[in-house]
Amino acid sequence: MAGHLTEEAAEALLRRFEPVIRSTRGDKFYPMDVEPYVRACSLWVQRPGEGPLCVVPGGKLSLERLPQQPLDEAGAVHFLRFTDPRHIEPGSGARLGRLRRGAKDLKESRESFRAGRGRLARVGYVSRFADALYSIALLARGRVPGEAAAAAAAAYRRIMGGHEHYRYHGRVLRQGGWIILQYWLFYPFNDWRSGFFGANDHEADWEKVFVYLSETEAGEVRPEWVAYAAHNYTGDNLRRRWDDPELEKVGEHPVIFVAAGSHASYYAPGEYLTELPVPLPRSIARGAGALRSFWQEKMGQFAGEHEGRGGSSYLSIPFVDYARGDGLTIGPGQEREWEPPRLMQDPPPAWVSGYRGLWGLYTRDPFEGEDAPAGPMYSRDKSVNRAWYDPVGWAGLDKVPPPNEALEVVVAQQKSVSERREALRAEIQAKSRQLKDLGVEAAAMRDRSHLDAPYQETANRIGELSGEVDGLRARLAADEAVSESLAEYANRLRAGEREPVRGHISRAHRPASEDELRVSRVAEAWAAVSVSLMLISFVAIAVFEREHLISMLVVSVALFAFVEAGFRGRLVNLVSSANIGLAVVAALVLVYEFFWQLAIAAVLILGLYVLWDNVRELRR
Amino acid sequence: MEADRTSYRPVRAIGLLLILQVTGLAGFGVYELAQVDWRGIDLLAPPRGLAEAVAFALFAPPAVLTLLSALSFLLLRRKGWLLAAISQGLSLAVCLWLYTVLQPYYVYPIMAYCVLMILYLNSHDVRAMFHVRRGAEERNPGSAP
C-alpha cells in the first residue's frame, strides 16, 4: 500500500469499506451520480445588480462543459438549476403531467412518513416564538419555490426511469499517516423543510462519510475511525472508533442512518433534535455572560442546565432530524447495491476543481440555508472546503497518531520533554547562580547611603529573577510529571492497551429516548396550540380587562408557563427562575425603601467584623 | 454514619429555617389580629389596620406549604425542595402585591427573609444535593445547517 495509490487500488479500497445506507421511509431522493444530474440542469450566472442569466440551457450541459466557464466579475455566482420547469421537458405537453406525477409521489411519500411527536412539543415558548418568526422571515428571504420539490421529484424519477442507479463519489488520499477513504454522496434535492418540517429546502445536497485506515508494516490496512457528516458540525464529536459499539457494521461496511430530507448522517436510528442557533448581538452576549459568571461564581448560585457550557447562544430554533432507518437500504447485499463509484482521485477531475459555482438554485438567501451547496471541493464562498483539503483535521483526528505510529510519537515526545527538562535545569542553575551573586551584592550594599540607588536596582532585579526562577522550577516540576505520565502511557501502548473508545466525545448526538418520545396526545395538542392561545389571551385581556392589564398579563403568562413546564417536566427550572426574578424585584424594593438603613447596617457589620477579627488576633 | 449525618446537615438546616419562617409568619399574624379593635369596626369605612390584618390571610397558603416542606425536609430528608421553592415564590409574590396596594410594614421582613431563603435554596451546593444533573452525554449538541 506504500506510495501512490493507483485508481484500481483506490477503487478496491473504497469498495471494501463502502457504507450501507439506511434511509427513512418517506424520503424520495437517494445518492446518485452527478453526470445525469448535470445533464438535466441548466447553468446560470448571477451578476451583482442584474437578473440571473442562463449561460447553458438545459440538456446542453455536461460534466466536461461544466468547468469550461469564463472567469466572471467579482461577486458573480454561477449556479445550476435542476427544477426549472422550462427545462424539465422543453416543448412537451407532458410537462404538467410529469409535475403532477412528481407531486403525487411526494404526497405518497409524505403519507408514508409520520412525524410522531412534533419538534415543537420538545422545546419551550421562546424557541416556539423564534420558530414562528423564522417561518415568517422565510416569506421575505429568498427561498426555493414551493413547487420545486415536486419538480425535482419528477426530474429525479425521469433520471432513475432511464437508468436506476445508486452511486457515490470516492476519493482516497493520505494525510498525517492515515489513509482516508472519502465517500461523497450526492442527492439531487434536500426537501427537509417542505417534506419533513425541517429548516430548509435546496437543490443539490453533498453529504460525506470518511473512513480512516491505518497501515501495518506489512502493508495491510486496518479501519480505525469513521466520521459521518451532519449539517455543519466538525471536530471530535463527529467520529467514532471502529470498535465503538454505537457504530453498526455489516461485515466491513459501516452503516449510516440518513435523516429524511436533510440527509444528515447518524450512527444510530432515531429522531435527533438539531438546533439552529440564533446569535445574540456581541455586546448583549458579553453582558449576559458576565452576569451569568457573577451569578454562578461570586454568588455560588446554580445557573441552569447550560452551566459550564459557556456558549454565546442563548436562543436556538429546534428542528428534528428523522433518521429512522426504516426506508430503502443501499449497500453491499442490501435491497439496492452501489454501482462502481465515480472516482475523484488527485489531481481532481475538472468538474470537481474547475467549477466553483453552486450545484443548484441560488436563491440569494442571506442565511444561505436555501441556497444550493457548492461541490465537494469548495464552500459556497468559493474557498476550498476543509473536509477536502484537511479531512483529518475536519474530524479532529489531527492530534491522534495512527496506531502504528503512536508508540514512536510517544517516545519522540518523551525525548523532547526530557531535552526540555535538561534545558530548564541548566537555565535554573544559571539563574540561581546569578541570583546568589545579586544577593551577595545586595547584602554588601545594604545600609550604605551612597549606594542607595544601585541597591534598589539590585533589589528589583533580585525580585524579578526570583520570580523567573520560581516559574522555571514550576515548569520543571510539571514536565517531570508529564514525563512520568508519558512513560506510563508508553508502557500501556506496549501492552496493547487503547484509549477509552468514547474518550474523545464531549457531546455526542443522541436520538430522543423512548421517554422523551412518549407523550400524551394532550401534550402534543398543547404544543400545537399554546403559542396561538397565549397570543389570543393577550388580545382578550387587552380588550376586556384593560383596567387590570398588567396583573392579568402576569397571571396569564404564569398560568401558561406553569402548564407548559408541567408538560415538559421542567417545573423545577420554572419555579427557580420565577423565584430568582421575584427575589431580584424584592431586593430592589428593599434597597429603595431602606437604602440608608441598609448602608448604615453594612458599615456597622463591617466595623464589628474588623473589631472581632482584631480582638481575636490580640487574644492569641 | 458521620458522613451521612454531615451530608444531611443542610437539609435539616433548611427544615429549621422554614419552621422559623412559619413561626415568624404566625407571630406576625397573631400580632396583626391583636392590633385590630374588633368592637369598633365600621364596616362602611374599615380602618387601614383591619385591611392589613385581613390581607395577612393571603400568607396562609404559602405558610401551609412552607410548613409541609419543612416537615418533609426534617422527616423525609431529601424531598420537598420544589414545595419549599413554590412556598417562597408565593410568599414573595404576595409581599410584592401587598407592597403595591397597602404597603404594610410586615412585608419588608418577610421579603428579606424570602430573598435569603431563595438564594440559599438555589445555591449550587443545595441544588446539587437535590437534583442530579444530567450528564453531558445526555445533551444534544447545537448548531445546524
Description:
The complex is a heterodimer of chains A (620) and B (145). Chain A has 620 residues and is of the alpha+beta class. Chain A has helices at residues 7-16, 34-40, 95-112, 125-140, 148-162, 192-196, 282-298, 350-353, 386-389, 391-394, 403-445, 452-494, 514-517, 521-544, 549-568, 571-593, 595-619; strands at residues 20-22, 42-46, 53-56, 77-81, 169-175, 178-191, 201-215, 221-228, 239-241, 249-250, 253-258, 265-266, 270-278, 315-323, 329-330, 342-343. A 6-stranded mixed beta sheet of chain A has the order 9-8-7-6-5-16. In chain A, strands 1, 10, 11, 12 and 15 form a 5-stranded mixed beta sheet that branches. In chain A, helix 3 (95-112) crosses helix 5. The radius of gyration of chain A is 32 Å and the shape is globular. Chain B has helices at residues 2-7, 9-35, 48-55, 60-76, 81-101, 107-122, 124-130. In chain B, helix 2 runs antiparallel to helix 3, helix 2 runs antiparallel to helix 4 (60-76) and helix 4 packs antiparallel against helix 5 (81-101). The interface between A and B is large, with 47 and 38 residues.
Task: Work out the number of β strands of chain B.
Answer: 0
What's the N-to-C terminus distance of chain B? 54 Å
From the N-terminal CA to the C-terminal CA of chain A, the straight-line distance is 79 Å
Mean pLDDT score of chain B, rounded? 80
Topology:
The complex is a heterodimer of chains A (620) and B (145).
Chain A: H1 7-16, E1 20-22, H2 34-40, E2 42-46, E3 53-56, E4 77-81, H3 95-112, H4 125-140, H5 148-162, E5 169-175, E6 178-191, H6 192-196, E7 201-215, E8 221-228, E9 239-241, E10 249-250, E11 253-258, E12 265-266, E13 270-278, H7 282-298, E14 315-323, E15 329-330, E16 342-343, H8 350-353, H9 386-389, H10 391-394, H11 403-445, H12 452-494, H13 514-517, H14 521-544, H15 549-568, H16 571-593, H17 595-619
Parallel strand pairs in A: 1-11, 5-16
Antiparallel strand pairs in A: 1-15, 2-3, 2-4, 5-6, 6-7, 7-8, 8-9, 10-11, 11-12, 13-14
Helix pairs in contact in A: 3-5, 11-12, 14-15, 15-16
Chain B: H1 2-7, H2 9-35, H3 48-55, H4 60-76, H5 81-101, H6 107-122, H7 124-130
Helix pairs in contact in B: 2-3, 2-4, 2-6, 4-5, 5-6
